[in-house]
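Preliminary data (for renewal application), pyridoxal-5'-phosphate complex.
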Amino acid sequence: MNFQEVQSLFPSEDGNEERRKQLLGFVEKMIQTIDSLKDPQRATLGPMRERSDDFYKQLIRTSKVPEQGIGMQQMLEELLQLVPGHPYHTRNFVTNVLPMASIPGILGALLTTLLNGNNLWDVYGPAGAEAEVRVIAMMSKLVGYDEKQSWGYTTWGGQGAVFSGLRLAIAKQFPHAKEKGIPNNLYCFASENAHYSLLKSVEATGIGSDHLVLVRTQKDHSMDVADLQAKMEAVIQKGGIPVYVVATTGTTDSFGIDDIQAIKDVCDELTMKYGLKPVHIHADSALGGFYSFFNHYDFTANPLKLEEEVNDGLLHIRERMQHLHLADSLCFDFQKFGQTPYLSSLFLVKNGKDLGLLDLNEFETPYVGNRGYGSYHTGYTLECSRMSSSLAIYAALLAFGIEGYQQILANYVRVNLAFRKKLLAAIPNVAITNEANIGPITTFRFYPGTVEWAEEISGKASRAQIERNNAWNKRLFERLGEHRDQVFFGDTTKQCLVDIIDSSERYPIAVVKFFSISPYTTVESVDPILAFLKEQVEQYINERMKVESHV
Ligand SMILES: *Cc1c(COP(=O)(O)O)cnc(C)c1O
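Predicted structure:
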């Protein structure tokens, strides 16, 4: 490969048409290949490809950098061989919050890549800086933060936001922890159903997971605030300092929504009583925060003409979600309900000035920022170089608008309401295990005999009983997983913890998950999905009967 050929691997320098067409041709070929494999009746692009046990070992053995570049055509062929069998977000894709990237999201991400600016500094990435400031303001206004006070940045996922919130929580109470290290008596709190992001964060900050206190949850899978109060008080009385409470507003498995208002009241009351500094509350709204798009919806006039039960369901969600602005920080995972590609998460801070506590000194950043030119330097993020994922967010917010988001978010609720009704009618011995939580997710659990959910959730079942029911469901997960190319259901081995009669430990509940996430999953898609499920369950029961009659 000569040097000119190397140059031809880049977009043109002068904007000539020939090279533009060449690039577009490659893009078209990619889309064509994907399109040729699409089938609305499957959840994969063409048949799924099973991976043998030594699949990855073989890749390791056979992969090495070619001596000569293989040429664009062949490179593309190789690349596109990764596509067949890939999961795809058709109407039958109901596994988890893994959305299809929308066209505005894709275009925003493409512009990010084409400009390839560095979002670290506006001198290097002015487009990213401008889009980032705009989306921070847009989302601040939406949740009810004062956009003149709030600030934020795009970061590495909902996980990154939980971590950034904790960094801030520590810095607010211990501004010198950056230099001196953290005290050894700090504590963090979240519900048992919170995302494991906080676990990783307490590990990484050196607080230690023994200092992560898990709070019990209620039947609606939200935090039991009385238990929070008791556990915080116990920590304080032993000389511990609560620094961080994560309120999950929309748990990833059950869509339980913690009551931020009540959590804030408890925190304020305790810190006043004991003369402590305020505890930083982070709303882990990565998933559910998008329902803030209904904060100003007129549910009485109902301009979108939503069905009564959908309207009521959304109103129910709003009752909790409208308090998001009470949190000191929060997050929007745009790669979830924001309909943008990975990775585009927005971390927002109510009092933006606090981020100054995390900023680097001028002395420490000799080659960026602090010049007469450029005025946007994100020295407070944990990342150094940053991708401008705000461009995808900006594009999606403009293209969908509040109403577009309301439509798609309402449809998730509509589909789930239909699914719940029809599931209970179609299949015996099944219980919906997040009945109180209207939203985009339905969790459900099968029983070998009669339904025991009421007993289980009230803490009246034994360990053996729950173990048997969990085993029954886990074997069914395996079966559903094998056929995920047809309908791709989700599952979780720990939707929630429940009390049991024969021990003081709480015990996990395994459930199947229906997560309506595709824009193509509508009420009409529910019957075929249920027909598939019913058939799988019946075959499963037959198989089990055979196995058990052999024993
Ligand atoms: C998805 C999710 C996370 C993690 O977000 P990533 O973007 O995967 O890092 C954290 N918390 C909640 C509630 C989530 O739903």
